[in-house]
Design a protein that fits this description.
heterodimer, A: alpha/beta, Rossmann fold, 9 helices, 8 strands, B: alpha+beta, N-terminal domain of TfIIb, 5 helices, 15% strand, protein heterodimerization activity (chain B), Trm112 (chain B), Trm112-like (chain B)
Chain lengths: 279, 166
């Protein structure tokens, strides 16, 4: 399948014709509904409560419709004017705005109980205009998203990465902004059904990333959170905290490292790292 | 754009520290419940079998109101409604926001909202209607700090920034 992000910028690609095609195609509708339902499931909102949801890249309001059906109130923004006009013609329940996710969200801090986004954030990896810096745009998006979320709330962003580096770039930007969480991959063995959901937590240190769905329909419990990251997990050790080269601790750390790599290493003893007696 | 959205939005122009609340001006407003009622009436006139359930907007609901109330800053809502000339029936806010003066955090916190239980049902319904059904069709939003104007066209605010404002 061709990728719209390779053809033109979103506001150009989703013109009047394309926006209508997208919205009234029953196949698209089914996929969108299915993905939104899954995203809502991953959001894990408190039951019997009306939540306020932000829909990033709401488009013609297909995803919003599912959110409204679940009894929640949503607001959304999108960069394609034509998509928003289709949304208005369809009388969506949510409030719409014309905005670019790469310029950041524009809401008061801590108002949203959850954020969803369906097939939108892969566009952030592109530089569609001369002045676009994808890394900066991603960072701006995730930091402003973080502030507009209630502490402990989640953001579930479904996206279509064109390659593994896009997943990495987006997760790195999210992590930098303070999110914890990971990427949930549903049906990883099917090329058509495979879906990526970035499941982000705002302000919770060690939340468990939900497991992705497998081809037989059951969630796999082993490999939970197919690509997980924790804030600060890879923080560099300050040089002052590192053992001095040649010291016993340094040797022990090296031996441990090589043992983990499966290299044969001599056993530790009380003589390890000691100087030879002078003859 | 409905007043609920206005209540949530703030300016995201570069360098702006306090972009809340956005100044609201309108040349055309409408009540969505009136629009829906009219559509139903037309439909009924055309086809007498049509039921109005399909077209009606959700009724006032205490649960929805209770859940959404802590997210709303009432003083800002009151000010926005007065700017549009639809503040009648709304209870006065505890602290008033004046558009000319700088706004401090206490004024725009939802903690200064009047207690829902202390309001009469009529007042709650009026607030609900203003929040969810008062729609700005044509108008503008103004950033309180930088003065940047975001136009609202056909009910959609244009929040796109220029290259140098990001």
């Amino acid at each position: 399948m061709s990728r719209p992000e390779f053809i033109a910028p979103p506001e150009v690609f989703y013109n009047n014709v394309e926006a209508r095609k997208y919205t009234f195609n029953s196949r698209m509708l089914n996929i969108q509904t299915e993905m939104t339902e899954r995203a809502l499931e991953l959001l894990n909102l408190p039951e019997d409560q009306v939540s306020l949801i932000l829909d990033v890249g709401c488009g013609s309001g297909l995803s919003g419709e599912t959110v409204a059906d679940a009894g929640h109130i949503w607001v959304g923004f999108d960069i394609s004017k034509d998509m928003l006009e289709v949304a208005q013609d369809r009388d969506t329940d949510g409030d719409l705005a014309l905005a670019d996710a790469g310029q950041g969200a524009f809401y008061r801090p801590g108002v949203f109980d959850g954020v969803i986004s369906i097939s939108a954030i892969q566009w952030l990896c592109n530089a569609d205009k001369k002045h676009h810096r994808p890394e900066r745009r991603m960072q701006r998006f995730f930091t402003t998203l973080y502030t507009s979320l209630k502490r402990g709330a989640r953001a579930v962003l479904q996206f279509y990465p064109s390659d593994a580096t896009q997943v990495e770039r987006l997760t790195a930007a999210a992590m930098k902004a303070g999110f914890t969480g990971g990427v949930v991959v549903d049906y990883p063995n099917s090329s058509k059904r495979k879906k990526f959901y970035m499941c982000l937590f705002a302000g919770t240190a060690d939340a468990q990333v939900p497991a992705g769905l497998r081809d037989d329909g059951t969630p796999q419990t082993v490999d939970a959170g197919d690509i997980t990251f924790r804030r600060g997990a890879h923080r560099r050790i300050r040089s002052s905290d590192r053992p001095t080269k040649g010291s016993r601790e340094w040797i022990m750390a090296k031996k441990e490292l090589y043992r983990r790599r499966g290299v044969e290493v001599v056993n530790d003893s009380k003589y390890s790292g000691r100087r030879r007696r002078r003859l | 754009m409905r007043l609920l959205a206005h209540n949530l939005m703030c300016s995201h122009v570069r360098g702006v520290k306090n972009g809340y609340p956005l100044g609201l001006a309108a040349t055309e407003v409408r009540f969505l419940d009136e629009v829906a009622e009219k559509a139903i009436a037309e439909q009924m006139a055309e086809d007498s079998d049509a039921s109005d359930g399909e077209y009606g907007l959700p009724e006032y609901n205490d649960d929805v109101m209770a859940n959404i109330w802590p997210k709303v800053v009432y003083s800002v809502l009151h000010q926005a409604a007065s700017a549009l000339g639809h503040a009648e029936g709304l209870p006065p806010p505890k602290v008033a926001v004046s558009p000319s003066m700088g706004v401090d955090a206490a004024t725009v916190a939802s903690s200064s909202n009047p207690d829902l239980a202390s309001l009469t049902e009529q007042e709650r319904k009026t607030i609900y209607r203003i929040l969810f059904y008062l729609d700005v069709v044509e108008g503008s939003l103004t950033c309180p700090e930088s003065g940047r104007v975001f136009p609202i066209v056909k009910s959609i605010p244009n929040m796109l920034l220029d290259e140098d404002e990001v």
